[in-house]
Amino acid sequence: MSALGSGKSRVLAICCVAALATALGAGCVKQNENFVGEQGNQPCAGDLDCVLGTQCKGGECVPLDQLGGVGDDCQDDRGCQGDLRCFEDNEANRFCVALCAVSLQDCPGDQVCVAVRGDQGFCDFRRGEVAPEANPEPEPTPEPEANPEANPEPEANPEPEGNPEPNPEPEANPEPNPEPEPTPEPQPEPQPEPQPEPEPTPEPQPEPEPDPVPTLCERACDLLDTCTQQACPDDVQISETCVGVCEEDPVGFQAAEIVALSCEALAEALCPVPTNVGEACDADADCEAGPLSAFCFTERDPETNEETGFVGGYCSAVGCQSAADCGSGNICVRASNTTVCLAGCDPVANTGCREGYACQNLGQGFGACLTRCDADADCGEGSTCEVRTGRCL
User: Fold this and answer.
1) Which H helix or E strand runs over 224?
2) Is residue 313 in some structural domain?
3) Which domain holds residue 254?
4) Domain total in the chain
5) Is residue 154 domain-resident?
6) CA quadruple 44, 47, 48, 53: dihedral positive or negative?
7) What is the per-residue pLDDT across 332-390, written as a single tens digit (0 to 9) for each?
8) Which residues partner with 335 through β-bridges?
9) How far is CA 231 from CA 32, 238, 245, 302, 321, in A?
């Protein structure tokens, strides 16, 4: 039996069946009735250090009910649940959104996938109403120029001309001369009111050129890149020469078939994942683990030859980071000091497991196919065995 490796991710913290703990070489610790680890703001370096119902944010395990869901206000990505991102629109509103692919429009319900970069975008939860663009700033209005012509000062009154001829000597009993009428002061000519300078006519702005329509090969390669980033391990990447290879032979590349597929279908075809989790095995080599480490829970302990409770053996994979690493329908759980893939099942109906196994309830709607119990001793401390169903309660 190979040694268990280690992994990093947010996984379910469980150790609910004594047989699983024995096979992993560690004591089985029962933390509460749902087999879920104690929640709280515990220090963490990543989601792997946090239990179900919490997420590593800013170095602490924060309960999900303290993190924002889709549409909730946020300050940055640390305030949003799971893979949600904190988005700021043109009106400085910030809220949590989900990522999506524009070409697929794979948002839930009637949400619209709004482009951010290439084919990548976010799900607009406001029923397709896109945030208004910011209004352009108006051009400054030029101030009117001052009237260069200043009002002239009124001319001084001309002095009246003197009488050039001397008055003749008055005759006897002359009549008195009338006094001269005063000369009226000249009035300044009225000046026209200054007219404002006409505003300059703005030059017409050229219409922006529309974005070029992506070719079939560009669409196919963008979709492959988006889907593998969302669903595949970090070591699965689409080559930068993807478009060039496609254009050389689009039919052989199957570009038309690729753009017609969903991200889930492409991920199953491109991302290597375990294919027989939960099936019978005699050795690690019988398990298909994809990029993870194959691990077989054998029916008997190879050192003591005692029965382990895993009837017919049980294939698993070690080092998962999320349920997506374990294949469709399976889950990633923490056991001892590592993470393993287990076959998922319906904990309410107790269905989905092969004979000899029961769907053990892990809490919060998760279930895993594990060994059946026959007595309370087969379960963790504080749990009881429901013999009829073989489940630990």
Assistant:
1) helix 216-231
2) yes
3) 12-129+241-392
4) 1
5) no
6) positive
7) 998 878 899 999 998 888 888 998 899 988 888 889 998 888 888 887 777 888 888 88
8) 338
9) 32, 13, 23, 36, 11
